[in-house]
Every structure is written in C-alpha cells, then in structure tokens.
Amino acid sequence: MSYVSVNQLTKRFGSNTVFEDIEFTIQKGEFITLLGPSGCGKSTLLRSLAGLNPVEGGQIIVDGVDITHTAPQQRGIGMVFQSYALFPNMTVAGNIAFGLKMQSLGKAEIQREVANVVELVELQGKENHYPHQLSGGQRQRVALARALVVKPRILLLDEPLSALDAKIRKNLRQQIRSIQKELNLTTIFVTHDQEEAMIMSDRIFLMNKGEIVQQGAPEAIYTHPANEFVAGFMGHYNLVAADKAKSLFDMDVNSKVAIRPESIYVKEQGRECASHISAPRTGVIKNHQLLGNVIRYQVDVDDCELTVDLLNRSSERLLATGSQLELLFNLNEIQPVRAENV
Ligand code: ADP
Ligand code: MG
Predict the structure, then answer these.
(1) This prediction's pTM
(2) Of 164, 228, 260, 327, which is the most buried if we count CB atoms within 10 A?
(3) Domain 233-336 annotated CATH 3.40.50.1970
(4) What does each C-alpha distance from 98 to 87, 142, 143, 275, 324 come to in angstroms?
C-alpha cells in the first residue's frame, strides 16, 4: 500500500477550478518534485495537502488514515516556504523551538531536540543569532530545521531555493536531499526549475494547468515526453510536423515528432554511421548561442528550423552563421508526441 494516496482531489477558488480529480500515490521515503510553470497549481496543491486550503472534493490518505478534513497541526506535515517566514524577534534557537513549545515539551527535551536539528542543518554556533544577522541560505536552513524538529511524517517544500543565488542554491539542494535520505522522510518539493527537479527527485510530477501531465523518474520524463507540453518544458526538444518528419527522417507518422538538440550530430568526414543514424541532410546555420560547454545552433534544414547542441570542444568548433553542414539524426531518439490537451 502507498504511504500517501490522493484520490480525486478538487480545489476551487470561487469559479476558478485550480485542479479537479487530481490523483497520485507516493511511497514512504520518496522524494517527489512538483514541477510546472507559474500558476499551474503547485502551491495550491501543496497547501491543500498541508490543510492550509480546504478542498472541494476528494481524499488525502496518509499511512492508511484519511486526513482530508484534519486540522493542519494534527496532520504531521512540515512545510517550508520560499519566504522563510521566520519570527524576526526570535533567535535561531527560539524559532526552531517554537513548534516544540506549542506541544508543551519539557525544557531539557526541547534543548536536546533543537541541538539535534541544528547539527543536522549545520547551523552550529548560530543558535543565538537573529534572522536579520543570517544570510538567505542560513535563514532557509532555520526554516528547514523548524519544520524538521517536530518530526513530521511528510515534508513539503514550496520553492524553498528560488530566492537564493546560484551557488547557495546548489549547496542547499544537496543538503536537503541528503537530510531527506538520512531521515527517510517522504518529501514533496516544488520548483519551476527543470534542472533542479531532474537533480533532486526520485520521481517528478510534471504539472500544467492544474493537471499532472506526466509522472515518472527524471530520466524517463526527459527521454520520453508524453506530449508536446512536456517536450517543450523538459530540455529544448525540437518539434517537427508529421510531413517534415517524412521528408527529413523518412518516418511515417501522423503526429508531430520530438528530437532533442543533443541527438542531432554533424557528419564528420570519413566516419562510418551506425544503422540507427539517418541519411545526412544539409543545413544552414542561422545563428548560435554560446552556453559555455555547449554551443546551441539554430539550423535551417529544408525550411525546418532545428536547435542543434554541439559540445564546445575547441574554438575551431564554432561554425559561422550562413555556413553549411551535414546533419545526422539519431533515429532511435526521434519519437512521436501527442498534441497538448488531447
Ligand atoms: P503555482 O504555485 O503553480 O505558481 P498557484 O497554486 O499559486 O500556482 O496558483 C494556481 C491558481 O490558483 C492561480 O490561478 C491562482 O491565481 C489561484 N490562486 C492561488 N491561491 C489563491 C487564493 N488564495 N485565492 C484565489 N485564487 C488563488
Ligand atoms: Mg507557487
């Protein structure tokens, strides 16, 4: 049996239906990421699970118990928000201890539990600091410690890293993931950042317009997008119309096909091609973007504009706008995709 089971959950704000009949299950200890564009309903879903938004229908079952109408503080769910939401007039230790004081625990026990989570999130020495004396990353670790100290059954994190700069963000990602593994804590993490979702998750639930359009392991979603939306959101898939797929790849399909920029190669002189590689097609470079390790070209092939990623192995690699090249396509990686919302 699944640890978390959500059945036909429906949430409306007035006439605005944010999601309807949403369903999923989560195993104990899984790290799930809700990924999707702004406004698709990620925060509303998380808040509904936490009991901060009443729902209009459906069920939330945790460890065999229906908690759909249970008060938030009785659910055993911890939550961390993007905005930290710390008490500014309390120290780090005071902020972390708050939830335990609410549970009327003894002073010695509170001290012990606070010391444990302070160590877990590596904030030793900061116990008597106030939030304004901390960096953004440290504040978020206080928020994390505050959620963990009450030993939640489920941890919900709503874009906890979005306000932090890139380097701190990467460190904290790893720290969150390693703490989560150490505690075997069932976790739902929200982000709109595809890379973050890929790196952190056991499984990704990709949302669009209030629906989970695809769920699965990061690798599976990345390599097998279920529809055009997923192909557009994960990576930089090229979408090629059916008639073009026929002429470019000799594929007989009745939907668009998707191919990733890194599954297109440039033909090299004298090099034999494997059988899953297409016949070469001539392309003309329209422009390029230097992404650092990768050069991303826009190439016109038979009136079809394709994105092609080449590793930036040497400066000779940079091909001038207007120059011609012979492209090869990895036929194993070309796949038909459903239209969105069909
Ligand atoms: P996300 O977190 O994916 O960016 P949200 O869950 O915040 O999306 O929002 C989903 C939809 O729900 C949006 O249309 C938003 O306007 C609406 N919404 C969210 N919170 C409220 C609220 N408290 N009252 C009314 N509408 C809301
Ligand atoms: Mg949100």
Answers:
(1) 0.92
(2) 260
(3) no
(4) 10, 12, 11, 64, 66
